[in-house]
Design brief:
- The protein is an alpha+beta fold.
- Helices cover about 35% and strands about 25% of the residues.
- A hairpin with a 2-residue loop joins strand 19 (about 280) and strand 20.
- Helix 8 (about 300-320) packs antiparallel against helix 9 and helix 9 (about 325-360) crosses helix 10 (about 360-370).
- Bound molecules: flavin-adenine dinucleotide.
Amino acid sequence: MHRVQVLVVGGGPAGSAAAWHCAQAGLDVCLVDRARFPRAKPCAEYVSPEGSRILHAMGALETLEMQAAALSGMVVHAPSGDRIHGEFVARHGFRGFRDRGLGVRREVLDTVLLDRARAAGVQVLEQAKVEQLLQQPDGTVTGATLRTPAGERTMHAALVIGADGLRSVVSRRLGLAHQSRWPRRVALVAHYRNVSGVGTLGEMHVTRRGYVGLAAVGDGLVNVALVVPRRHAGDMRDGTAAYLTRWLEAHPTLASRFGGATRVTPVRATGPFASRARRPWHPGAILTGDAADFYDPFTGEGIYSALRGGELLTEYALSAVRASSRDVHVRALRGYERARQQTFGGKWRVEQLIGMAVGMPPLLNHAARVLSRDRDLADLLIGVTGDFVPPRAVLTPRTLLRFLGWAARSPFPPPCLV
Ligand SMILES: Cc1cc2nc3c(=O)[nH]c(=O)nc-3n(C[C@H](O)[C@H](O)[C@H](O)COP(=O)(O)OP(=O)(O)OC[C@H]3O[C@@H](n4cnc5c(N)ncnc54)[C@H](O)[C@@H]3O)c2cc1C
């Protein structure tokens, strides 16, 4: 039996950030992950400019920048052929912590972050899978049982942080998991070499058969992430690799760019992914990262939210661990729920609007037609996805009318923000 103040389940960006911040705040932390690192994770591997602020605070940014590709913005190709081109440095005047995003392989990112957690004093156990939670008769979580290569182990904790991703066992065991009905999409991800024409812009190509993202991720590699409606899974009967190859070959402009390319990693599949916990806490436990919520990969949001969630939860974790009574403990966890709502609420709305447009080609075609002629608005939107432009900048009625093409362009900065 082992006892710690905080047990973090999951060593992805959410778990490492939560563990690092809690350890820095003076808590005794153990992090467990069922995997052995470095481990791959199906992901388009883009980190937003504001994500770099947290990576810097954790002492990870310099190491990562040496192994990553720099991304200056994003270009979205709509089914109609119109292009939305937005860059992080723009006339709106908002600036991120860095003027660029990062394309970085998850094997690299997650291993560097886990090492930073270790350096902060976190006890890290790899190949330790949480199977059950320990709970008191009133339901309060008091720890977990782990399956390790050496056998079963029990770990007691004043607080369990569920950072164990989309199919979080912590969330499921507590009855908090909720899989959304829409959108139901699945993803196939692989790395390629020698894809022609890949520059410093991340690319999204949206078609009626799904969308594919391309981005440089350092070391001459390009991440290819295809997302298709789940009903297409039946067409993958001869294998995900064959399906991905066929999909790219059938694309009118991408086929020639992949003519001389070689796939250098297996095709990894995941999905469906839209899920949101009913609430991000339960007495004795809190959820962060994908375990708390994830919508759709289109905006490349998850890593920033995972890092930011770890940063955000620390003060509430401290209060919950040191609480003198169950009531005080629960009050701290409710505070965490409110803080998440305040921090991420606007962003969730923007993501849902974008997700809706991506799932409805006529709507996306319309938005692309408007945005291809309104570069300022495209830059503003890319800034929101880069986490340094506040979502309220695009959620004003006037800006929404601009998206619909019903309002004239306005000079920057937007009057509502000055
Ligand atoms: C196709 C696709 C593309 C994406 N592209 C982007 C992108 O470009 N940019 C971006 O920001 N986000 C992207 N995302 C989202 C991003 O991958 C996630 O939001 C991010 O990984 C969340 O981090 P996390 O730490 O919460 O979860 P994860 O990274 O999934 O980490 C969870 C960890 O928990 C461990 N674990 C799970 N169960 C247990 C258990 N029972 N016991 C112990 N350990 C356990 C796992 O081994 C894993 O290491 C994408 C997602 C998908 C599906």
